Amino acid sequence: MNKKNRGFSFVEVILGIAILAVVGGGALKVFSETGLPQQAMIRDYTVAMNICERFLSSLHNDLADGMAIDNMVDKDVTDAILENPNIQDYLKIFAGGVGKDTTSLTSNFKALLTVRPGPGPQSGVVKNIKLEFKWHIGRKQHSFALESYVYTR
Question: For the chain, which residues make up each domain, given as ranges?
Answer without folding.
Answer: 9-151
